[in-house]
Amino acid sequence: MTLALVGQGVATSLAIAIGKALVIERGQASIVCRSIAPEAIDAELERLAAAVDAASDSLREIRRQIPGAVANEIEELIDAHLLMLEDVTLVETSRQLIRERLYSAEWALQVQRDRLIETFERMDDPYLRARGEDVDQVVLRIQGFLCGRPNRLPQALATDMQGRIVVARDFTPADVIALHYRGAAAYVSEYGGPMSHMAILARSLNIPAVMGVHRATAHLLTDEILVVDGETGTVIAEADAATIAHYRRRLRALGRRRNRLRQLIDKPAVTADGTEIELLANLELPEDVVAARTYGARGIGLYRTEFLYMNRADLPDEDEHFATYSEIVRGLDGIPITIRTIDLGTDKHVSAASALEPGCNPALGLRAIRLCLKEPSLFRPQLRAILRTAALGPVRLMLPMITSLNEVETICELIADIKEELRAEGLAFDAAMPVGGMIEVPAAALTASRLAQRLDFLSIGTNDLIQYTLAIDRVDDAVGYLYDPAHPAVLRLIRETIEAGRRQRRPVSMCGEMAGDPRFTRLLLGMGLRALSMQPGSLLEIKEIVRGSDLASLARQVEDLFAHLDDVDPNRFIDALNA
Ligand code: PEP
Ligand code: MG
């Protein structure tokens, strides 16, 4: 009997999946020791034989495709690899290891590879010594076929994704969307932090995802059954019947909880002492409008428009922006929407605009409005389209990654110019469309008062605010342990923003992931926030907490926390607040 393989990564979404793995983007041979049952020997030998055949077919195919001019040298190399595939020292000895030691085919090859390479490395002749590399390449090729792993995502997309748990080194948000449309059921990645855009998308699509499972592509095999628990960040391969049954029970419990929460859909988001809290939805994709309405969102507090630029070779023009936004506004039927201008340049890139490739430190480089101001050809069509859409319904425009008043002033001038242009062209638009800014960098939070004099509203983007305050790359799981929304520095910046809004009489909302995390709802209400925007799937859970909260009491307790912020642990305070 083999034991279950358990991988621990970063929890990403409150969802569980049980399904067949599809491992893609195979890296170097990081094969692990894995054994087989005695009755599986024949099947394992057949698997190895099939992989060796496939490897040799692929080498013959490469040889066929080599252009004439270079054919000779490369042919020699390929022939050497083909000979090695037929050589008893590699394949036959691996077969022996499968039969005698019950090694998996991958592991048997790996063991034999290590032995051969060691022998080559001891040779004096440099030519023979270098032959070790050939062994390595041949073994890698066979192992690739053994794992049945298409090497790259586009190739993987050609396979059937329905219900598959896709395992890869990492995913871009564009990958997540492309895989989602093809029916992928869950994601497991080797890299990525809980606040990466990939994680946010997975949460919003309610797809289980676990990130930061190191060497997942080496440990997990295509077609094996996996359990992915997005809530605890656990991935289990070779789970026994009892474990599968346990997860099926948890799935049912999650379903029951969701059904119970659905009873709150028509209930108002009003606190126990009678204050209405605006619960808004974040939109990732136009079709999220349905979920936002189903779960009773009062409005859309953040519409991320980057998806318009993904999985395509060209840039969207004004007509496409306008068509997309107006369809969303029509679908919202009078519910207000805040459209954020594009925030490209970090983990979201524009493949269509190679000139806009990310710099060496993208999070601190030409990102979001910095990129837009540098490339007006990217920005103007979007601004024009948003202004025109605002003539069709209640639309606000929101600017990401503001760091200085200068930027806001430059954009306000640009918007004024565009209004003149639209007027001259006789196109309908809303001249009074509110323009707000996201507070995502400490500089913006500390000067929120000044920014609020020029902006109509503020929205706190905690994902970036935490990244920039605590100096932790949000896509790097290695520093994920430092991610702490309750860090005193973060809390002070949030509070400063809320107070700046109050002083300048400007509405302040929050649209980062913290807004949809039930752990922080009471704290945020106590700090004075009255508008929270989150992925639609979290709305009812947060509403349940809102309805049970007493604002006056929360405000007193939170006031006390801030009075002693240097002496207490905010996380313990939050535990007590939620108890
Ligand atoms: C944020 O930074 O909190 C935010 C909402 O923006 P994004 O996650 O898209 O960067
Ligand atoms: Mg952000």
Which class do the helix and strand fractions yield? alpha/beta
Strand segment count: 16
Distance between the termini: 44 Å
Assembly form of the protein:
single chain
Ligands (ions, cofactors included): phosphoenolpyruvate, magnesium ion
TL;DR?
With 579 residues, the chain is α/β, with parallel strands linked by helices. The chain has helices spanning 41-65, 71-86, 88-101, 105-121, 126-147, 153-157, 173-181, 197-204, 216-219, 241-262, 288-294, 318-332, 368-374, 376-389, 405-425, 442-446, 448-454, 462-470, 488-504, 521-527, 539-547, 551-563, 570-578, and strands at 5-8, 10-11, 16-23, 165-168, 186-189, 209-211, 225-229, 234-237, 278-283, 300-304, 337-340, 395-399, 435-439, 457-460, 508-510, 531-534.
Structure description:
The protein is α/β, with parallel strands linked by helices. Helix content is 49%, strand content 12%. The protein has helices at residues 41-65, 71-86, 88-101, 105-121, 126-147, 153-157, 173-181, 197-204, 216-219, 241-262, 288-294, 318-332, 368-374, 376-389, 405-425, 442-446, 448-454, 462-470, 488-504, 521-527, 539-547, 551-563, 570-578, and strands spanning 5-8, 10-11, 16-23, 165-168, 186-189, 209-211, 225-229, 234-237, 278-283, 300-304, 337-340, 395-399, 435-439, 457-460, 508-510, 531-534. Strands 1-8-7-3-4-5-6-2 form an 8-stranded mixed β-sheet. Strand 7 (225-229) and strand 8 form a beta hairpin. Helix 3 (88-101) packs across helix 4 (105-121) and helix 12 runs parallel beside helix 14 (376-389). The longest helix is centred in the N-terminal third of the chain and has 25 residues, at 41-65. The two termini are 44 Å apart. 43% of the residues are buried. It binds phosphoenolpyruvate and magnesium ion (MG). Magnesium ion binds next to helix 18.
